[in-house]
Each structure stands twice: as C-alpha cells, then as structure tokens.
Amino acid sequence: MPPDNRTLNRNQPLIVRACLLLAFLLLIPSAWGHVAHVFQTLTADVPYLLGTTPEQRKLDTYGDRKNTGYGYLLELVEDIPEEHFFPRVRYSTFYPNTHVVFPGYRHVIDDRLMIGIDIAASDFRETLVTSATPHMKEKTERGYVGAWAFATTWEYDLISAITLYFAPGQLPPLQNFKATLYDSPKNQVIRNRWVWLNQPSKSKMTLNLKDPIRDVYGRGSVPFLLLLENTAVGSKQTAEIVKVEILGKKIDTDGYTLFHREQTHFAAAETSFLNQVIRSGPPAWRQYFDDHINIPDIRKILDQEASP
Amino acid sequence: MLCLVPIFVLPWIVGLVLKHRHVHWASRWYFGLLSIGILLMLCHALGLPLLVTYLFVLLLLIGCAFLYAQNKQASAITEVRAFEFSFPVLALLPLLVTSYIHILSHPVAPADWDAISTWFFRVKLLYIWAPLKNAGWIDWGSYINYPHLGPMLETWVIHFTGQLLETHGRLVIPTLYFFWALNHLSLAPQVFRRVYFLFIAFLGYVFFEMHPFVNGYQDGMVAILAGMSLIHFARFFMREDELKGFHPDVFLGFFYAGALALVKSEGVFLGLIISLSASLSYFLKKPGCPLKFALRIGPYLLMQFLFILAWPLLIQMSGHDASQLQNKAFTLSTVIHWYQNLERWEVIGPYFGNYFLQKLPILLACLLVSIGSFILQARSRCVLGFLWSVWVLHLIFVALPYFATLSNLHWHLANSFDRLIFQHFAFYAVILAVGVSFLADKLGSFSSKT
C-alpha cells in the first residue's frame, strides 16, 4: 500500500526533491542540444535572410543547374506562351514535383516539351535497370514457368527488354517464350503480355519488348512481377532460366527534337509540334523557339522557314 | 507583416467566445484558429466561392466579438499576473522567432518529399480555391487520401499576404508549438508557481526539435493537437471535477482529439486512443451506471465522430469514391489479417529499440516523476494511468501498419516510422508537466505542515 498523507515520514520531501532534481538533470542534455541548435540556426539564418532575395533563396534551395535545375527551368519555362503549361521534366533519378514550387500556376504537365536536368549520356541508352529475384519456379513438360519480381529504384521512360541467363548444359535449339508483366505481386493487374516464337537458344538471350512499358514513375517500394514461361520447340531438352535482367531507358527522346542544350541539360520539343510551330505558328510559340533555340541545325531550319 | 494578423489577432476573437474563465488563453487561441480552419474547410467543400467564404469568416468573427461583449464578465480570462504571462512568453519567444526566420530563409526543400508532393500541392489548390472534385484537370494532385486542415490554415495565412508565398503559410506550425508549450501553464500547481513556469519554459526547449515544425510536413501539427487534447483531459482529471453537463476541458479535449481527424488520416486513431482512454479512465475512477456515463460522455463522443465522418462524407459529396481513401499500401484484407505477418517483428522491433534508446533520458525522467507522483499523490493515479495508457496504445498502433503493409517493409519503415512515432512526443511533455505539478503540490504540503 502506498503511504498516504498521514504516514508521511520526514524523508519524503527529500525523495520528492530528488525525483524532481534527477528528472531535471535527465532533461538537460535535450534542452541544451536544442538551445545550441536554435543559436546555430539563428546565427546562420539571419545574415542569409538579410543578404539574399526570395528568388536567390529559391535558387539556392532548388539549384540553379544542379539539384532540381530550377535556374535552367526558369530560363526555359517562364516564357512559355501558354499560361498553365509546364513541360515534362526528366531527371536521372526521380521527379521532385518541380512544377509545384515553380512560381505562378503552371499546373498542366504537357508532353509537347521535355526538359532534362543533369542527364548523363548513358541515361539516353538502354541499360540495365535491375536484376529480378525469383519468386517461384516450376518445371513443366517442356520447359519452366517462373515468377520474377523486380523494383525500379529510379524513374524510367521505358522498360524495353529482358535478358535471360540459362543454367549450364545443353539447350534446345529453339524455344518459345511467353511473358506477362503484373503491376505488383499483390494486385495482379496485367501491364502487358509478350510472346516470342522459335527463338534460337543461347546461354544469354535478350528479348526486346515490342510494346515496351512506358513511364515507370514513382514506384516507391512496390515491385513488378514478371511471369515467364519458356518451352522447347521440337526437342525434349528443357532449359532452366537462372537469372533475369531488366533493361530500360531512363530518358527516351524518340519523337522529340532537341532545340536547346547546355552542358548536361537539354530541352526538346515533340517533333510534330515543333514542325507545326515552325511552319504555321502560332506566333507566340514561334517567338518562344526563336528566343531559345541554340542548336545550329534547328536554328537554320527556323531561319529558313522565317525567310520569305 | 500582414500574415501575422490571421496568425495572432483573429483567432483570439473567436477564442474569447468560450465562456469559461479558466480556459487558458493559449487554448483560446487554438480553439479560435481551428474553428476558423474548420469553417473554411466546410465552405470550400460545399463549393462556396472564396468571397462568400470570407464573408462567413467575417460573420463568425463579428458574432464571436458580439457574444464576448455580451458576456464580458463570464467570458473574461482569469486574472493573469504579469509574470505568469510575460515570463514564459518571453522565454519561449526565441523558439518562435528562430523558426520564423528559418522558414523565411528556406523554401520548402525537395528533400522533404511529402511537404511538396502532398502538402504544398494542397496549399496551391486551396489558394486558387479549386473545388474538392477538381483533381481531373490539375496536375497538382487531388485532395484524396489526406484531409487538409493544415494546408487550409496555411492558405488562410497566405491569402492575407496577397501573393502565393508558401513560406508564410508554414509559419502556422511553429506557432502551434509555441502556444501548445504555453498551454502547459494551465497545469500549474497551487504552490511554487514561478518555479513551475520556469520549468515549462525549460520543457519548451527540451521538446523543440525544429525540423518537424518548419519542414512543411503535418506530423508536427498532429503531435501538437494530440498534446492539446492530452492537456485538457489531464486538467479535467487533476481538477477532479464531476462530468455533469458541459465541461470546457472535456469539450476541448474531445474537440482537439476530433480535429486530429482533419489533419491526417492516422490522426483519427490517435484522437480515438486519447478520447477513449480518457473516457475509460473516468469511468474506472468514478464507476457508476454505464448508461448514465454513456449519456454524459455521448455528446462529446458524437462531436468527435462527426469530425471523423466529416472528411469521407465531404469527399463522397464532391463526387469522389471515399472507399478509395489512402494509398495502395493497405487493403481491408491486409489490415484485418495483420496477425498473419507476426514474423515481421524481427524487422520492426529494432526500430522500436532504437526509438527507446534515443528517448531513454526523457523516458526515465517521465518514469521518475510518474512513480513519485503515483506513490505520493493518490489523486494523480487516474491522470497518470490515462496518460500512460495513451502512450502504450499509441505504440501498439504505430506497429500495426507495418504488420499490414503491402509495400516493402524496410522501405515503409525507413520512410515513415520516425514521423509516425513522433506524433506522440507531446505525451512526454504533458506527463512531465503533470508529474511535476503534483510533486510541487506535495512539496507545498510538506512546507505547510512544517
């Protein structure tokens, strides 16, 4: 039974004080850490705030040419003649919603223009996205059926091919392949199916996806699931797939024409849109391209069209 | 400077309408600010034009000022001594000023992903007063998944500046921390009040992790509203009042717990954990006829359920499918069958271990004052039981989503655990304030005996 007021002994005030003092001492490091942080923040922020403009602070936060490439975007986007137009902006990692922090109300992301920020040459090529991990594998009469999971860490414009590696041993001369890509192992939504018939077997085979998966954006942590079936043609030999690699392109500029380039940044317009603007306007867009084209070949075409 | 008017001036006018003298001035500010935010949300969801909405806000302000003038005597805040008012305010002001300067110096950062992709999205939508059902024509995203009391309050502040400056909107969140810290003064003991006020100013610094209050996320707001609710329920238990008719502390406890549902979806559960724990604690303290108890607590619970239902109802009314709330990480089936993934504890457990290690000094301090109060002050047992039960239940709640998630567990934990568990940080401050208050009273009783 805890003591009540009547049974208080003379040690109790001491216990209370000790409790309070000990609790206070335990809290001091946290308080001190935060006081120091407040002081550091204040001494760093006050001169910075007084010595910069809001636009400079935005450039510092979002990056002029690095980071989100805010400075480069300002130069190319502010003059776009359509009020709500914001181009598709591609990074080699992921899109950080630059249009939200962009000034004004440019809220319609329009594919007619694509801007790339800090894009390496390899980002334009088909490269290895990731290796898939086996989820399940089953032997069938003439081959194997397997489920392979893979996650795309960054954003890809295209998932364009798969590379298969077979277990060592004799392979059937020809094989048929069927692949079904599910959106995730859980929801079983089919993204696409492919069939390859009578493919000559090799220990490592790359199969191109005729109708590739486009715009693989913002997958977070949810993996895709690839159901893969291989069967031997005219042979009893079976071939076991031991490794699957996923290939893709981070930036796909097919159908686009580059009109501005600066180090690792670029701006491109849909070729059909650019042709239309060059040929027949509208004048505001024509003026826009006139102001921003820095690729000599494109400049020449524009100048030729402009001359009577 | 104009943005300070909706932050500091107008909420008081609404807050003054609370007739009860002992409602703390910091809590009146809160009540006023949230009431304005809720009114704005309602008008926006009903599709009223911005101008009409602001006319309603003006009517609310005039009505509250009129009511206050009518009942000046009854509504007057309890006499505030100069020291009691000025010392803690001045002591905590550097926190507020530093946060403001930091926010104004740093636009919302791309590294704080959700701050842009979720919250500033909504601020921008609300700034142009785009209707709830818009999402189809604006790539800024929709209002689905999360409610938007926080962004609405940010927008309310930004509207006063006349241009879309997101930095001004974010000033609201550290202000919430400032007034929440000051509201602990309402738990003051009868004796050693000045020492207690010093202690509360000290607590303000102990718990001030600046980043969550300046980065544009809403978890800080969830944590602080939970803290406001805890303070009012704690006050109710400390005063040992009977629950008969309208009780301002119980009302405000439920009000803040309910408002949590309008900030973030997980706020629904935190709010329910707080209010149901409080209800149960009261029932255990004063057992009686369950029906009578239900009738007394019923209206308050009803208010909270109205808050909880408000969001999906408004979503449904505006043409969205409310059953699609939240993302693909959970389905009803995975939530129901969470227990099938108990082996995940091997991955989840270390996160809790790290958290307890980080919080060890604060946890020990809380345990010390709790045990001391529990043994020496019998009347503290109910409130301590209530507060610790909230802590335990919220810890359990924090673990549950990770047993049910469809996302990669490591990714999900790495990206959300810290923010989710941060939402109960206010518990530590309230329990320290309550424990110290009881112990101070106990010390006072020793002095009076000698």
Helix-strand topology string of chain B: HHHHHHHHHHHHHHHHHHHHH
DSSP helix fraction of chain A: 25-40%
Order of helices and strands of chain A: HHHEHEEEEEEEEEEEHHH
Total E-strand runs of chain B: 0
Unreliable stretches of chain A (pLDDT < 50, length at least 5) are none
Average pLDDT figure of chain A: 88
**Content of β-strand of chain B:** under 5%
Rg of chain A, nearest Å: 30 Å
| Structural class based on helices, strands and sheet pairing of chain A | alpha+beta
| Poorly predicted residue ranges of chain B | none
Number of domains of chain A: 3
Question: Which class best fits the helix and strand makeup of chain B?
Answer: mainly alpha
Strand content of chain A: 35-45%
Interface with most residues: A-B, 57 and 66 residues
Number of strands of chain A: 12
**Mind describing the biggest β-sheet of chain A?**
8 strands, antiparallel
Tally of helical runs of chain B: 21
Helix content of chain B: over 70%
Tell me, rounded to a whole number, the average pLDDT of chain B. Answer: 88
Oligomer: heterodimer
Shape of chain B: globular
Can you give a write-up of this model?
The complex is a heterodimer of chains A (308) and B (450). Chain A folds into three domains: 15-51; 52-119 and 251-308, no CATH class; 125-249, PHR domain (Jelly Rolls, Sandwich). Chain A is 30% helix and 37% strand. Chain A has seven helices and twelve strands. Chain A has an eight-stranded antiparallel β-sheet with strand order 7-6-9-4-3-10-5-8, with no helix packed on it. In chain A, strands 1-2-12-11 form a four-stranded mixed β-sheet. In chain A, a hairpin with a 7-residue loop joins strand 6 and strand 7. In chain A, 28% of the residues are buried. Chain B is an all-alpha fold. Chain B has 21 helices and no strands. In chain B, helix 1 packs across helix 2, helix 2 (25-45) packs antiparallel against helix 3 (50-70) and helix 17 runs parallel beside helix 20 (409-422). Chain B starts with a helix and ends with a helix. Classes of the chains: A alpha+beta (308), B mainly alpha (450). Chains A and B meet through helix 1, helix 2 and helix 4 of A and helix 5, helix 6, helix 10, helix 18 and helix 20 of B.
